[in-house]
Design goal:
The complex is a heterodimer of chains A (327) and B (322).
Chain A (H helix, E strand, L loop, with lengths): L7 H26 L14 H8 L7 E4 L4 H6 L4 H8 L23 E4 L7 H13 L6 E6 L6 H12 L4 E7 L2 E2 L2 E2 H4 L16 E5 L3 H16 L5 E6 L11 H4 L7 H8 L3 H11 L5 H24 L15
Parallel strand pairs in A: 1-2, 1-3, 3-4, 4-8, 7-8
Antiparallel strand pairs in A: 5-6
Helix pairs in contact in A: 1-2, 1-11, 1-12, 2-8, 4-12, 5-6
Chain B lengths: L2 E3 H15 L3 E5 L13 H9 E3 L4 H12 L4 E8 L7 H8 L2 H4 L8 E6 L15 H5 L5 E3 L4 H13 L3 E6 L7 E3 L13 E4 L4 E5 L3 H13 L5 E5 L2 E3 L3 H11 L2 E4 L8 H12 L9 E3 L10 H7 L3 H12 L1
Parallel strand pairs in B: 2-3, 2-4, 4-5, 5-7, 6-7, 10-11, 10-13, 13-14
Antiparallel strand pairs in B: 1-8, 6-12, 9-11
The chains are: A alpha/beta (327), B alpha/beta (322).
């Protein structure tokens, strides 16, 4: 890990983001286990460095598209954890007024064009956001997050080819977290690097360490700049690991079966993106330890406040079922 | 009033709207060449940026339209044949229609999907299906199926100006049909039916090419003194329920003519609505005339046998009079 070419302000922003995602997701996990959240939640624990590093290179004008595992992307793009938590509770004060839930959070004011619950479903939409940037002669970049599972969907292949053929400013960020639900990525494809697929579409394909937020930042900055310069799309494969469940409460689907070893999980935790960054900042003496502790306390407090606010928010009015229809 | 072909009227709607609004652009496979004449000549006027040829990737192109629509543009996405929409189902059903609602009203999706609908050209099952009924079943997708050049132009212009996702279905079999197209600027509101023939004995409801099937049947019935009212719905979602109910209140008999396969056809919806909401006016059971329940065959003779015919409609009308 190194921070050459990255200012201390940006470094602190990235660290704050990783930490905020971790604390938010830990709280969501607790709430789910306590039976307080309806539906499914898919957590981003252990993958935080990807969203944090990539989104630190973006402006509010730039857009992102996310997945069913999308809380981290919302936070990294600058989303409001209060509105997100309220949405997870299905409350009227949530981002989507309780109509979306965990898998569909959007914040159009900050260029977060939405989380998409269908694997690979967001990739074509991100191409369209890139198309409009090109059409409008804007320097806007469209970033699309998706997983290794999506890389086996037709939408992935169609979209990379389309973005390449039209030379659009899109950055495709494949978060290879090693599992499509319970199936190892290695069993779902016969290649080691999804990034290799970029060659089939005539665009750069880069592999990055998804545990290293600073490397993610550097690689994404290069890809975003390439897009802004009119040189077309890039595929980034972030090697990461889904340390937690596919969805919280996955035990119910597994019926006592296991799909990965304790050793594998321990190896993944040895590369905890939060710990790596924290250790690096300490070793390099970049920020005072007290500042990091205060930051953690503040974030933990803000997450707690978001939960309290969500719990105390009213349910949506039943009449709102017929709102937000045709314009 | 000038008389123009159906495809010329559609082309005129596209070019007028593209001239009017720089956010409107056309994207799809072979839209430059204009594999259907409805898009021919647009590239010469509007250039590469506004008439965008794509790879044959229906899913990605449909999704790209959505992405462009939610970031400030007004795309017209030409997916060519209705059957190709099946390849783009996720983007239309899960994303375009639901996005505004699912995101709590944060965005709007001003987007037109265009495709040719139905049979009549002996193109075999993969290029000859009517698909409108699938999309009628999807919340928040508007569906249009015009039968005349004048309706096609006025409705497509409305679709392009609409802030919601609209599926504009046109008919290859009607492409060369001529009709009156007003010389001056006009719009036809989405959701408004048109009575193509007035009559007091039976209400026949249709859309797209089946309007002509219904009119042929009505002409034949008139020779026997039976006066059919033919309602062209033009828009299938939302649809002009009131126009149909008002007509049935007058005639007391209802025949739905629809180029869908029978189960959950558009005709099923129209017939169920009339049966539920105009029951006390009905003097006979409602009737449905649809495709036969088989894949579309190739041979012109067989294709004709599968499609609703004027004879089918006449027989259905006779059942209401029995």
């Amino acid at each position: 890990m190194h921070h050459q070419g990255i200012s201390l302000d940006v470094l602190l922003d990235i660290y704050t983001c990783v930490l905020r995602i971790r604390r938010f997701e830990e709280e969501v996990s607790r709430l789910f286990r306590q039976g307080q959240l309806p539906g499914f939640v898919h957590l981003y624990i252990g993958e935080e460095a990807v969203a944090a590093g990539v989104c630190a290179t973006l402006t509010d004008e730039d857009t992102i598209i996310s997945t069913h595992r999308g809380h981290g992307h919302v936070i990294a793009k600058g989303g409001d954890i209060k509105r997100m938590m309220a949405e997870l509770f299905g409350k009227a004060s949530g981002y989507n007024k309780g109509k979306g839930g965990s898998m569909h959070i959007a914040d159009f004011d900050i260029g977060m064009l939405g989380a998409i619950g269908i694997v690979g479903g967001g990739i074509p939409i991100a191409v369209g956001a890139g198309l409009s940037a090109w059409y409008q002669d804007s320097e806007r970049v469209s970033v699309c997050f998706f997983g290794d599972g999506a890389a086996n969907e037709g939408s992935f292949h169609e979209s990379l080819n389309l973005a390449s053929a039209l030379n659009l400013p899109v950055v495709f960020v494949c978060e290879n977290n090693q599992y499509g639900e319970f199936t190892p990525a290695a069993r779902a494809m016969n290649i080691c690097d999804i990034a290799d697929r970029a060659a089939g579409y005539g665009i750069p394909g880069l592999v990055a360490d998804g545990a290293d937020a600073l490397e993610m930042y550097r690689v994404a900055r290069t890809a975003a700049q390439r897009a802004r310069d009119g040189d077309g799309p890039t595929l980034i494969e972030a090697k990461t690991h889904r340390r937690g469940s596919h969805a919280e409460g996955e035990e119910a689907f597994l019926a006592g079966q296991t799909y990965r070893s304790e050793e594998e999980l321990a190896a993944a935790w040895a590369k905890d993106p939060l710990l790596l960054l924290h250790t690096y900042i300490g070793e390099q003496n970049l920020l005072p330890a007290e500042q990091l502790e205060t930051l953690d306390a503040d974030i933990t407090q803000s997450v707690r406040e978001a939960v309290d606010a969500a719990r105390n928010s009213p349910d949506p009015k039943v009449e709102s079922v017929f709102e937000d229809l045709w314009v | 009033m000038p008389r123009k072909t159906y495809v010329a009227a559609i082309q005129e709607a596209l070019s007028e709207e593209m001239r009017r609004d720089p956010r409107v652009f056309l994207i799809g496979e072979d839209v430059r060449i204009g594999v259907f004449p409805s898009t021919r000549g647009l590239h010469a006027e509007f250039g590469d940026k506004r008439v965008i040829d794509t790879p044959i990737s229906e899913l990605a192109v449909a999704g790209a339209g959505i992405g462009a629509a939610v970031t400030g543009l007004r795309p017209v996405v030409d997916l060519m044949f209705g059957t190709f929409l099946y390849l783009a189902f996720d983007q239309i059903a899960n994303q375009a229609g639901a996005m505004r609602y699912m995101y709590g009203g944060q965005t709007k999706v001003p987007l037109v999907f265009m495709a040719q609908n139905g049979a009549g050209s002996s193109a075999g099952h993969h290029h000859s299906q009517a698909v409108h009924q699938f999309f009628m079943n999807m919340p928040q997708i508007k569906v249009i199926l015009p039968s005349t050049p004048g309706d096609g132009k006025g409705l497509l212009k409305s679709a392009i100006r609409d802030d919601n996702p609209v599926l504009f279905l046109h008919s290859l079999s009607l492409g060369g049909k001529r009709g009156d197209v007003p010389a001056e600027e006009y719009l036809i509101p989405i959701g408004l039916a048109d009575v193509k023939r007035a009559g007091g004995d039976v209400t026949i409801c249709a859309a797209g090419p089946t309007v002509y099937t219904a009119l042929d049947a009505a002409d034949a019935l008139a020779a026997e003194g039976i006066e059919a009212e033919v309602i062209d719905l033009r828009s299938l979602s939302p649809w002009d329920k009131q126009a149909v109910l008002d007509s049935v209140a007058k005639t007391g008999r209802f025949v739905a003519v629809d180029e869908s396969f029978p189960t959950c056809s558009a005709a099923s919806e129209w017939a169920a609505t009339v049966a539920a909401e105009a029951f006390h006016h009905l003097r006979a059971p409602v009737q449905r005339v649809t495709n036969k329940d088989v894949p579309m065959p190739f041979s012109p003779t067989l294709e004709k046998a599968v499609l609703p015919s004027a004879e089918d409609v006449i027989a259905a009308v006779r059942r209401t009079l029995a």
